[in-house]
Amino acid sequence: MTGGPSGTDPAAMGLVEALRGRRxxxxxxxxxxxxxxxxxxxxxxRWAPNHHLTEPWRFRVLGPQALQAxxxxxxxDKARKYDRAPTLIVASVVIDDxxxxxxxxxxxxxxxxxxxxxxxxxxxxxxxxxTPETLLQPKGREAVGLxxxxxxxxxxxxxxxxxxxRTPERRPVDQILEFLP
Length: 181
Ligand SMILES: Cc1cc2nc3c(=O)[nH]c(=O)nc-3n(C[C@H](O)[C@H](O)[C@H](O)COP(=O)(O)O)c2cc1C
What we know:
This protein has six helices and four strands.
C-alpha cells in the first residue's frame, strides 16, 4: 500500500490505534483530498456489513457549484461553517419501501460512513461527521442533488488536520456492557 496524502502509511496504523485515535476535527488545512484518495476511501467504506447486500450507501462530493447551492439553501449566518474543511461529501442512504429493510440499510450506511472516517484517519486525514439541518430540508437536499428515494446521513468533512483535538471521555465499559445469564 502506498503512503497517505500526508505521508501516513495506512498499512502501518493498526486497527486498535485507528479505532481509538480517530477524532472529530473542526479545523482543517486548505488542501482538498484528491479524487483518487476519495475513491479509495469509498472503496473501503463499501465493505461495511450489509444485510442482503443492498449496498444502500451513496456518496456525493461537493464541487464549488454544489457547495454554493448548499450555502444558499440555508441561513446566511451558517454558510461559513461549510468552509471549514476543503472536502465535503454528502453521505446518504437509499430508502427501501419496506421499513424493516430501510432501518437495516440505514444502519449499514452509517457503518459505511464510520469505515470511511476510519480509513481517512489511517491515511493521516482529519474528518468530521456533521448533520447540518439544511441538508435535511428540501432546499438543501435539492442543492446537493438528493433524489426523493434517498435520505442524507450527514456531511462528511475531510482534509489535512490543523490542530490536535481533545479526546472526549467515554463511559466505563462496565456501564455499557452486560453479560446475561
Ligand atoms: C450521526 C452523527 C451526526 C453528527 N453530527 C454532528 C453535528 O452536526 N455537529 C457536531 O458538532 N458533531 C456531530 N457529530 C460528531 C460528534 O459530535 C462526535 O463524534 C462526538 O463528539 C465524539 O467525538 P469524536 O468523534 O472525536 O470521538 C455527529 C456524529 C454522528 C455519528
